[in-house]
Amino acid sequence: MSTSNIDGIPLAFAAAASRLDPRQDNYVPDLTALILAQARQHRASDVHLNPCELELQMQWRIDGVLYTIAGFDRDLSGRVTARLKVISGLLTYRTDIPQEGRVAREYSSSEIRVTTFPSLYGEKVAIRLFAGNDQLQKLAQLGLPDHVEVALRNSLDGTAGVILVTGPSGSGKTTTAYACLRELLEHSNGTRCLMTLEDPIEVAISGVIQSQVRPAVGFNLATGLKSLMRQDPDVILVGEIRDPETAEAAFQAALTGHLVLTTFHAGSAVEALTRLLEMELEPYLIRSALRSVICQRLLRRSCESCAENRRNSAEAEKFADKNRAHNAPCTQCPVCGGTGYYGRLVLAELLEPDSPDLVQGLLSRADSRRLGALAESSGMKTLRQVAAEAVARGHTTLEEVLRVLGGRPG
Fold first, then answer.
1. Torsion over CA: 280, 283, 285, 287 (sign)
2. What single string gives the DSSP state of each residue in 79-147?
3. For the segment 350-384, what is each residue's pLDDT rounded down to a tens digit?
4. For residue 275, which of 244, 230, 310, 231 has the smallest C-alpha distance?
5. Does any domain span residue 308?
6. Which residue among 12, 130, 134, 162 has its CA within the 20 to 30 Å range from the CA of 33?
7. Total structural domains within the chain
8. What is the CATH number of the domain that holds 23?
9. How far apart are CA 219 and CA 228, in angstroms?
């Protein structure tokens, strides 16, 4: 596994880039390939190429935080962007509209998504690097809290109903939804028809019929879902519920005997319920079709190397205070580069709207605060409670919890 000394990454990239000859015809293709390879080596989930007035700035998102890695000559901006468009099947001559594509398999063995967006000084490019083929494929690999994983597996055993995977952007919703899909595929042994409707398709899964919407020709999520129902699917993955029409179609599909997996932007499991009500879904429809709601966040994980250094240090006594022991990084740590973090962990809460009090609250359209209290009284462990446990175990820090969740855990 590659280490990622944050302070050393710009130097490492500069050293690798210096070995390329700008005078060679293949300089831009080689530089583009180097960017993708180095970003993956250093565990970046996203690469941002930002055209500025005087340079092309490159940033990488590592463990959820953006770091500036390099700056290139301004005249490279259009050439690198054009190369990324070529390998992603985008239109090189259109620089005035946003575009989305996936890097072709001949250029990368792992899934990479490229999006472009016109800006003042040229096109901004965002590159999403998905986990490799051997990572984060199954539920057991995600690191979900044990009680959430068990409850989610039970929901997946059902033959009908809606399973909502919620959270803000960048919280790993799609990764979890795909892991659920692979779990269903493995356990069905080919006896169930699994289909998806996505915008866009982010990862290709062998054995699943995947389709990408095309709103420009009227093939959107809502209309596509209605047509997909005629294909006799058993399990349907809807990439994301974004509007009332898609929400209605997804829940109606669940009522007619289909298991529906979908993602949804919501800050908590309870907030997902209130957002569905705001989309004018009838409470009885939510109650009848919804199997479970999982809400998750990704937090940086405390660096184990720093912890080991503290344990082995002659000065370990000064870290005895339990409120500091997990928080103080080793400034010379070669693994995390002194940040105190390496990798990420997932926090999750799971709500099953089946307790009588919660059902009554839902049917009466109670507000989110009231529904939250009812959910907790029915036994749901909240994100903040899970976060407090993670801090107590030394898996992350209070500062990281505050950064991601705001407020205080527990």
1. positive
2. HHHHHHHHHHT--TT--SS-EEEE--TTT-SS-EEEEEEEETTEEEEEEEEPPPTTSS-SHHHHT--HH
3. 999 999 999 999 999 999 999 999 999 999 999 99
4. 244
5. no
6. 134
7. 2
8. 3.30.450.90
9. 11
Task: Tell me the residue type at 7.
Answer: D
27 shares a domain with 82: yes
CATH no. for residue 369? 3.40.50.300
Residue 173 lies in a domain: yes
Domain boundary among 129, 161, 184: 129
CA distance 235 to 260: 6
Q: Are 408 and 402 in contact (CB under 8 A)?
A: yes
pTM of the model: 0.85
Token duo for residue 339: 């940040």
Residue 63: both structure tokens together: 């463990």
Dmax over CA atoms of the chain, in Å, equals 72
84, 114 Cβ separation under 8 angstroms:
yes
